[in-house]
Amino acid sequence: VIPAVVAVDGPAAAGKTTTCLALAQRFGLSYLESGRTYRIIALEALRRRVSTSDRQEIVILCDDLIRESRDQDLLTSGRYGNEDLRSPAVNVAVSDVARIGEVRERVTHLVRLWAAGQERCIVEGRDIGTVVFPEALVKFYLSASAEVRARRRVDQERRGSYEDVLKDVIRRDEADMSRTVSPLVPADDAINIDTTSLTLKEVLGRMSSACAAVT
Ligand code: C5P
């Protein structure tokens, strides 16, 4: 069975989570933030002192975590707080972890398993429309200038200086777009929305029309 999926991809701090939560509520979709899983793996690597540049060790850690959490729980686990998952150290480590093909395969498998158990869902990430669900019902690619994304992130999280956040956003975009496995790129059939000069309401308006047409 092909699950009914709305795919939302795009660079860091493009507004994926905010828009996904609103659409999930409006259309009655289950919501999954795939970046969270990559962040959990990165956080555990830091905690267990596994070097994120040691590919083999990270893959072993990933398998341990999946075993310990009994598969899908790794995706939806409430054991981790945002404070830890969104720390500057994890922001750096996650790019290393997400570059490893074997890690991506495992996370992709978990996300597909989860989606197969949902009636209809919305999933956000970097490779959802391109790799994880190429057959998604609707695909969105959200973007905005790095400056605007950094500004919004600072206003929203009230943590870190604008300069630091901007640097991190640019660094993560570069890492996500240039990696060899599943780089961040819009799917050919994605609806591209540049939100630089749009309000949240306008963005949601466009996304809702597209969702309403298929759900
Ligand atoms: O979405 P979020 O910014 O929390 O994701 C953190 C990191 O996880 C991204 O910078 C990216 O490297 C990685 N990621 C990914 N593929 C996804 C989701 C996230 O590579 N589908």
Can you give a write-up of this model?
The chain starts with a strand and ends with a helix. α9 (146-157) packs across α10 (162-178). The relative contact order is 0.22. It is built from eleven helices and five strands. It has helices at residues 16-27, 34-47, 55-68, 73-76, 82-85, 88-97, 101-116, 128-132, 146-157, 162-178, 200-214; strands spanning 4-9, 30-33, 120-125, 138-143, 191-194. The protein is of the alpha/beta class and 215 residues long. Strands 2-3-1-4-5 form a five-stranded parallel sheet. Cytidine-5'-monophosphate binds at residues 12, 34-35, 38-39, 94-95, 98, 125-128, 172, 176.
Describe this protein with a few key phrases.
215 residues; five-stranded parallel sheet; globular; alpha/beta; 11 helices; binds cytidine-5'-monophosphate
Write the layout of secondary structure elements.
Layout: E1 4-9, H1 16-27, E2 30-33, H2 34-47, H3 55-68, H4 73-76, H5 82-85, H6 88-97, H7 101-116, E3 120-125, H8 128-132, E4 138-143, H9 146-157, H10 162-178, E5 191-194, H11 200-214
Parallel strand pairs: 1-3, 1-4, 2-3, 4-5
Helix pairs in contact: 1-11, 2-6, 6-10, 9-10
Bound molecules: cytidine-5'-monophosphate.
Would you summarize the structure shown here?
With 215 residues, the protein is α/β, with parallel strands linked by helices. The chain contains eleven helices and five strands, in the order E-H-E-H-H-H-H-H-H-E-H-E-H-H-E-H. It has a five-stranded parallel beta sheet.
Mean pLDDT: 94
The gross shape turns out to be: globular
Which ions and ligands are bound to the chains? Answer: cytidine-5'-monophosphate
Q: Which class of secondary structure composition applies to the elements?
A: alpha/beta
| Total beta-strand segments | 5
Our count of helices gives 11
Taking the sheet with the most strands, its summary is:
5 strands, parallel
N/C terminus separation: 17 Å
Low-confidence stretches: none
Strand content: 5-15%
